[in-house]
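seq:
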Amino acid sequence: MGALHRFIESPQFNRDIVFGEWAVISLAQGDVDALLSDNPVVHLGDLKENAFILMLPLAPRTLFVCASTPEDLVRTTTNVSCKLFKAVNRQMVKQATEYVYATGRFHEPLVRKWLVHTAARNGDV
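struct:
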């Protein structure tokens, strides 16, 4: 078993994630697809304080969600909307190092706005 695999399965390093509240949510209506980047996990909150929400796009209209508490999971997964997907997309682009992947050119203004600013802030432009 490789080191990464052992890390992923190790409760010592990721106990809060392994034992967190998990769900898969889908956007039934709307015109927003989830983006993916070279840094694909959107992280809100603080893992050290066991107060977090993690989101990972699985498909254009599907997100994996892991929350530290049942309440956070319910708050995140109830009434899934375009607003949630747009917020995840914005954060996905902001935290991208170099690449953002999309299903089409619909998100190009968002990518141009935030990926360029992130690169400039990091001294890459």
